[in-house]
Amino acid sequence: VFAPCSGTIVRTGREQEAHSFGNYLIFQPKNPSLPLIFFGHLGSSLPTTGSVKAGESIGTLGDFHNNENG
Predict the structure, then answer these.
(1) Less Cβ crowding at N or C end of the chain, within 10 Å?
(2) Burial, 22: exposed, middle or buried (Cβ in 10 Å; 0-12, 13-18, 19+)?
(3) Do the Cβ atoms of 39 and 24 come closer than 8 Å?
(4) Could you give the 3-state DSSP secondary structure of residue 69?
């Protein structure tokens, strides 16, 4: 999973409930006219919060067998 534009990862976490988003991150684009972007069903190796550049790797898809994607 790659950053769609330059911005900031403002939060990462995991929803524990069954049939949830599992591991997720919330991305705030640098352009203030763009909305926050939610990425769910990610692998357990989540990035730290902070600035990223467009195209930078920000995560991987979760594995159903490891219950990473809810």
Answers:
(1) N
(2) buried
(3) yes
(4) coil
Asked if residues 11 and 25 have their Cβ atoms less than 8 Å apart, the reply is yes
Residue 12 has pLDDT above 80, yes or no: yes
Mean pLDDT, the chain, integer: 91
d(CA 17, CA 60): 20
Whole-number Å distance between alpha carbons of 28 and 52: 10
For 35-67, the pLDDT digits (tens) are 999 999 999 899 999 999 999 999 999 887 666
**Phi and psi torsions of 26, nearest 5°:** -115, 125
pTM over the 0.85 mark:
yes
